[in-house]
Structure formats: C-alpha cells, structure tokens
C-alpha cells in the first residue's frame, strides 16, 4: 500500500474530508517511520506543535475506525481497513436480482416414496421458519434417512424462501468450486470469478445470505472430515469449510443452512444450543409403521409381528430395511421367519455400509466399539472406566464415547452405552476376523483386550460371548490352520509370547480366565472320545 492510497483512505474517514497541510506532513513522515523530532527538523516546525498535530490526528482516526491508532501501528491499521473496504467493494459488485422461489435441486434424490418422520419435519421447520436458525445439522448413521429427510423438508419449505439450493458434498468438492457454484446461482451466472482468499469468498456468500432468505442444503458434510482422527477434523485442503461453518453460525444473516452428516462438525458442537441459531437434530430410526411400509414397498410381506421384529432388528434404519427386504426375498423367498431362523442379520450390503462407518474410526474408537460388542449388553461409563482405565484414561474415554455417539454408532440411555443390534453384529464379525488374523500371525493387539474383557464379564454374558465370539473364532481358525493340534500349538506359542511381553497381569491368564483354555481343552477331550463322529470337535458343543 502506498502513502497516497493511505491518505485517500484517511481523507474518507475524517469528518473534514481532507488532511490539513500540517496533518499531511505529519502523516507522510509518520508513514515513513520518522520521529516527531526528525519531522520538526526537516520541515523546521516547532517539535511541540508537530506532536500536537500528530496526537490530534491519531485521536480522530481512532474515533473513525473504532480502534486505537498510533504513529507506530498506523500502517497495520490502514492495511486492514483497506482490506475490509475491498471486501465490501467486491460484495457491492455482486449481482443481486432474486427470482422469487428459485430452486436448484442439484443431485437431490427422489422422495416420492417417503414415510413417517412427521415429528422430525415439524421440529426442523419450527427451527428454520419460526426460530430462524442459521445452521441446522441433521445427524445420523449411514442409511438412516438424512438425505431423504433433507429433500422432503426443502420441498415443504420452499415457499418460505427466495432461494432453495440443495447440494451434495459426497465427492468432496473443493471449497472454492462449491462456493463459486453457489454464487453463480445466486447471481444468475453474472459473477463468475471470486476473490482468491476463502475468507473473502465467504464474505461474498454471506452477502447473498444477508440480502435474501435462502435455504442452502449441504448433504454428506462428513465427507469433508478426516477418517480415523476422532470427530470433527477436516481433511487436508478442506479447512475453509470449517471457517464457513463458523461464520455462517456466528454472522447475522437471514438464511438457513441445513447440513446432513454422519458426524457432528466441531464448530457445530461449539456453537449449538436450544435457544441459539445453531441446532442439531439426531436422527433415529423410523417408527415401526413407516418401516413396515418400506418393507411392503420392497415387496416383502409377513405377519404384523414378523415385520415389526424386522424393523426393530434394524433399528428402523430405512436403508438397512431396504437391503434386508431384498435379501430376504432373494434368499428366503420372502419368508421373514426363515430369515430369523438363520440368525444372521448382517448381509453383504449392510456390512458394506457399516464397513464405511467403521473405517472412519480412530483406533481408540474402534477399541471401544469392540469392547461394547464383546460385552453384549449395556455398559455404564463407570463400568467402562473401571474396565479400561489402563488403556484409555478417563477424559479420553469420555471423548471417544461422545464421538461414537455423535456418529450414531453407539446409543446412550439410562442403563449406559450400547450398540444397535445390527451394529453389534457387524463389530463382532470384525472382531472375529481380527482375532483370527492375530492368532495366525501370532501378534496380540485386540486379542489381549478381548480376553481380558471377557474375564470381567458376568456369567450369562460370558456364555453369550463363548457362543457368539469364541466358538466362531475357533471355527474359523480350524478351517485356516487345518487341525486342533495346529491350533493348540499356535495358541501355546502366542501365550508364551504374551507372557514375555506382558508378564502381568495378562499372558496366559487371559486365556484361562477368558474361557479359551477350557473351550479348547474341553473340545479336545470330546474330540478324542468322539473323533469318529465329529469333524470339528472343538466346536461341537458349548463348554
Ligand atoms: N422416511 C423414509 N421413507 C422411505 N424411504 C426412506 C425414508 N428415509 C430414507 N429412505 C430411503 O432409505 C435410503 C437411505 O436414506 P438416505 O440416503 O436418506 O440415508 P442417509 O442417512 O442420507 O445415508 P448416508 O449417511 O449414507 O448418506 C434411501 O434409499 C432413501 O430413499
Ligand atoms: Mg445421505
């Protein structure tokens, strides 16, 4: 910035509209960093007078700018002022010509077959229309119906807005591209280039959101967040979206932004509140009647009881119900009772869905998920702390639990924390695979955790663990290793390794206390006496 540009700004700010001759001299020399004495010597003025002129000038500028201006901070303050003016100028060249009720649905999905969700639709429209919430986040696990609900809501509310724009972030668009796209829409393609800095781009966007009442829906916000780093971290290069959320939540404007996400962005967590303009709705499953309608739509019929059970089994997750309905039709000729008799509710499609979710978790989050699956029932936070204190300190554990809850992978209610049935099955399946891998490679990451956890469990839970975890593991290992002898050798070596690495309190005790030892020995004895009858004796009967 040149001194001439600085003087032009100063003259705009002063009431008089111009600098006096003495003020201009003081300003020019102060800009060069000269002292009052140097100025006085150069222009042969009285140093006291020069100082007075200076003090008066800085006082007037401080008043005009609302911040303290001195000879020393002059350059910094004026550069910031120039930047602010540039932002405003950029905005004022934006094109403001609204359509009435302009809608742009992007890749929004079809919601002509949409059931239930009346309460959620009511709550969301109250927040947006009555309370004028600026940022609303719709949170829920994959397949729960966030996208569908956001489209339905936008359809219902479009009459309330001058602009409705629905955009998916599923393919992680760069911030600049997405903002440009939105501004092009708002300006009817008149504005095609934006300032370079994300800060200024957001300023432009907010200008439109101030000027018009807009509903901007950003679907799949979680795509912008980093996998495996705890909740709310942005992927590299996507940080401007974080700034966007802050400013959309904190700056006054008359529009509403609806986000859908599997995870709660940190800024939303920091800004939200019941009486505040930033709100979150955690989406749970569909009510039974709506779930039953989905099953019917997919051509699956059954008794009232069977369909109810199926909806409950999938926690009312519409995607899971759709996938399950198709699978039941294909594999069991539409017979729900047959499907239940088989006892597996995690089909390929839902497995994929959960796999995506699970992959996003940090190691600590995955461990807590494993522990909850191992425990089978509810665990209070105190029980979790007692069991896992050496591995996860309390504050870390609490933040992991909160993060998992945000991701809708665990539920918390009065009795403590637990997982939806389908989630628990999926996590158990992963655990079994993981433990098998570790035994085969003789490493011990989850195995020790698993075995020590098992040692803590109540009897009835331990039975269920043996039935649902230990036996499938042994079953799988027998197939992989080929014989019970091989398996026992493998486990023996692993136990010795554990003893060496962790002499107390784990090592071989984990196998004994966890019931593994008995399982193997029991099956081996039986195998010896019944070897003619059973191909895999180790698995043949409960302990
Ligand atoms: N209320 C509903 N009635 C009927 N079908 C629904 C309903 N809600 C969702 N669906 C259907 O369930 C499927 C999953 O819904 P949707 O895509 O909205 O889930 P999502 O929560 O956005 O998942 P993701 O986190 O993977 O984006 C879609 O096929 C959708 O049409
Ligand atoms: Mg979605």
Which structural traits does this protein have?
single chain; binds adenosine-5'-triphosphate; alpha/beta; two-stranded antiparallel sheet; 59% helix; 543 residues; Arc Repressor Mutant, subunit A; binds magnesium ion
List the helices and strands and how they pair.
Layout: H1 3-13, H2 21-32, H3 36-43, H4 47-65, H5 74-92, E1 102-104, H6 118-130, E2 135-139, H7 146-157, E3 163-168, H8 175-186, H9 198-211, E4 214-219, H10 240-250, E5 256-261, H11 266-271, E6 278-282, H12 288-297, H13 304-313, H14 318-332, H15 336-342, H16 348-359, H17 363-375, H18 381-388, H19 394-406, E7 411-413, E8 416-418, H20 421-441, H21 445-456, H22 459-481, H23 484-501, H24 508-513, H25 516-530
Parallel strand pairs: 1-3, 2-5, 2-6, 3-4, 4-5
Antiparallel strand pairs: 7-8
The protein binds adenosine-5'-triphosphate and magnesium ion (MG).
Magnesium ion binds next to helix 7.
Commentary on this structure:
The structure is a single chain. This protein has four domains: 3-92, Arc Repressor Mutant, subunit A; 102-282, 3-Layer(aba) Sandwich (Rossmann fold), CATH 3.40.50.300; 288-351; 355-539, no CATH class. It contains 25 helices and eight strands. It has helices spanning 3-13, 21-32, 36-43, 47-65, 74-92, 118-130, 146-157, 175-186, 198-211, 240-250, 266-271, 288-297, 304-313, 318-332, 336-342, 348-359, 363-375, 381-388, 394-406, 421-441, 445-456, 459-481, 484-501, 508-513, 516-530, and strands spanning 102-104, 135-139, 163-168, 214-219, 256-261, 278-282, 411-413, 416-418. The strands form two sheets. The chain has a six-stranded parallel beta sheet, sandwiched between helices. A two-stranded antiparallel ribbon has the order 7-8. Helix 5 crosses helix 9 (198-211). Adenosine-5'-triphosphate binds next to helix 7, helix 12 and helix 14.
């Amino acid at each position: 910035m040149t001194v001439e540009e600085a003087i032009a700004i100063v003259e705009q700010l002063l009431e008089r509209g111009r600098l006096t001759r003495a003020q201009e001299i003081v300003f020019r020399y102060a800009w060069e960093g000269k002292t009052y004495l140097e100025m006085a010597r150069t222009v042969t003025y009285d140093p006291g007078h020069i100082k007075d002129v200076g003090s008066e000038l800085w006082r007037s500028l401080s008043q005009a700018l609302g911040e303290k201006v001195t000879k020393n901070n002059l350059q910094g303050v004026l550069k910031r002022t120039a930047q602010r003016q540039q932002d405003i100028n950029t905005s004022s060249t934006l094109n403001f010509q609204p359509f009435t009720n302009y809608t742009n649905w992007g890749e929004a999905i079809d919601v002509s077959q949409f059931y239930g969700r009346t309460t959620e639709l009511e709550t969301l429209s109250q927040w947006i229309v009555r309370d004028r919430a600026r940022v609303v986040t719709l949170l829920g696990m994959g397949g729960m119906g966030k996208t569908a609900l956001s489209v339905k809501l936008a359809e219902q509310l479009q009459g309330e807005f001058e602009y409705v724009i629905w955009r998916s972030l599923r393919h992680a668009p760069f911030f600049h591209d997405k903002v440009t796209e939105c501004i092009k829409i708002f300006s009817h393609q008149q504005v095609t280039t934006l300032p370079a800095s994300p800060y200024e781009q957001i300023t432009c966007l907010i200008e439109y959101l101030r000027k018009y009442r807009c509903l901007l829906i950003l679907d799949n916000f979680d795509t912008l967040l980093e996998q495996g780093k705890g909740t709310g971290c942005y992927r590299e290069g996507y940080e401007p979206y974080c700034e966007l959320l802050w400013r959309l939540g904190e700056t006054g404007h008359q529009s509403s932004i609806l986000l859908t996400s599997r995870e709660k962005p940190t800024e939303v967590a920091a800004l939200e509140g019941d009486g505040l303009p930033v709100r979150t709705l955690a989406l749970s499953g569909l009510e039974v009647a709506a779930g039953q309608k989905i099953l019917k739509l997919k051509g699956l019929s059954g008794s009232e009881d069977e369909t109810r059970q199926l909806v409950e089994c999938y926690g009312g997750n519409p995607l899971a119900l759709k996938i399950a309905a198709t699978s039941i039709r294909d594999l069991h000729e539409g017979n729900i009772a047959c499907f239940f008799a088989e006892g597996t509710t995690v089909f390929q499609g839902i497995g994929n869905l959960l796999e995506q979710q699970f992959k996003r978790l940090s190691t600590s989050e995955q461990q807590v998920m494993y522990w909850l699956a191992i425990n089978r029932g509810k665990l209070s936070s105190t029980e979790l702390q007692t069991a896992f204190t050496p591995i996860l300190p309390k504050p870390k554990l609490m933040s992991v639990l909160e993060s998992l809850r945000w991701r809708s992978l665990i539920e918390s209610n009065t009795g403590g924390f637990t997982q939806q049935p389908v989630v628990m099955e999926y996590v158990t399946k992963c655990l079994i695979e993981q433990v098998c891998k570790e035994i085969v490679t003789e490493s011990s990451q989850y195995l020790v955790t698993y075995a020590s956890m098992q040692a803590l469990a109540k009897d009835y839970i331990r039975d269920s663990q043996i039935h649902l975890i230990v036996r499938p593991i042994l079953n799988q290992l027998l197939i992989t290793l080929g014989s019970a002898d091989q398996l026992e050798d493998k486990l023996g070596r692993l136990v010795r390794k554990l003893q060496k690495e962790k002499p107390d309190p784990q090592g071989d005790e984990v196998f004994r206390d966890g019931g593994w030892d008995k399982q193997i020995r029991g099956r081996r004895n039986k195998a010896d006496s019944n070897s003619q009858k059973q191909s895999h004796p180790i698995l043949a009967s409960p302990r």
